[in-house]
Automatic annotation (TrEMBL):
SUPFAM superfamilies: ClpP/crotonase. This is Enoyl-CoA hydratase. InterPro entries: ClpP/crotonase-like_dom_sf, Enoyl-CoA_hydra/iso, Enoyl-CoA_hydra_C. Pfam families: ECH_1. GO terms for molecular function: catalytic activity. It comes from Mycobacterium talmoniae. Belongs to the enoyl-CoA hydratase/isomerase family.
Length: 272
């Protein structure tokens, strides 16, 4: 293997492989607990951006290779000895890298499922929280270690955590750096479900199959409406809902859903 190939392998990769209507996105750097290098983040952003315009996809699955989900951004590589970035480098770069990953997962009009085993740390933790559904092994660990490393949080943690678990628990995770197990995360409402580690893959697959067979347009519009409602008044949200309703009622899946209801059968949605 050449030096360039060795370097590329060390930086890891994000693979995006299609299985039917599901896009499988794998964070592949197990020797570093799938911590995200700059090239990996770029690949992740590219995969999600392409998926956003693919009308044949109906769900996205994000997972980590090996024993862990994601140990966050690779700050060791970012802060190489002897390399001093220009002033303001973080403020310039992060909106287009780590923050862009969170924004895309949160806003893409496809349901996103994360399956988490092992560690979900920092950016990796927030990635799992930004997903529509996260299924974790009961012994997985969710950790926001920003302050324990001496810097303030990023990648949406101060927005996501209070909305999911309330301000008191958000402070426990962010200000005190408390680690939360997969089982406790499910009890708190931080994630969708915790399972026995041996049952994690089956639980994620069942959820993905359910989402991928749903009315994809209506699912995406509902996700968008839920996000909008986090910062809107009730009248504003209801106005937004009307626009979404107008669009979803023009889909083939709406017609199929109505026909299935009338015929007392299970609808066969095509995502159109």
């Amino acid at each position: 293997m050449t030096d360039d190939a060795d370097s590329a392998a060390a930086e890891g990769s994000v693979t995006a492989l299609r299985e039917g209507a599901i896009l499988r996105v794998t964070l592949d750097r197990p020797e570093r607990r799938n911590s995200l290098s700059h090239p990996m983040i770029d690949e992740f952003v590219a995969a999600l951006t392409e998926a956003a315009t693919d009308d044949t996809l109906r769900a996205i699955h994000v997972r980590g290779a090996g024993a862990d989900f994601c140990a966050g951004a690779d700050w060791v590589a970012t802060n190489t000895e002897g390399h001093r970035p220009r002033t303001g480098a973080l403020a310039r770069r992060i909106p287009h890298t780590a923050h862009r990953v969170i924004e895309l997962v949160h806003s893409i009009q496809l349901p996103v499922v994360c399956s988490v085993r092992g560690w979900a740390v920092g950016l990796g933790c927030n990635l799992a929280l930004a997903a529509d559904f996260t299924v974790a092994a009961s012994d997985a660990v969710f950790w926001e270690p920003f302050l324990t490393r001496g810097f303030s949080p990023d990648s949406g943690s101060t927005w996501l955590l209070p909305r999911l678990v309330g301000l008191a628990r958000a402070k426990r995770m962010l200000l005190l750096g408390e680690k939360v197990s997969g089982a406790d995360a499910a009890d708190w409402g931080l994630i969708h479900q915790a399972t026995d580690p041996a049952e994690l893959d089956a639980a994620a697959e069942a959820l993905l199959a359910r989402l991928a067979s749903g009315p994809t347009v209506a699912l995406g519009l509902t996700k968008q409406a839920l996000n909008y409602g986090q910062h809107a008044t009730l009248p504003q949200s209801m106005t937004h809902e009307l626009s979404s309703l107008e669009l979803s009622c023009r889909t083939g899946d709406f017609k199929e859903g109505l026909a299935a209801f009338q015929q007392r059968r299970t609808p066969d949605f095509q995502g159109r």
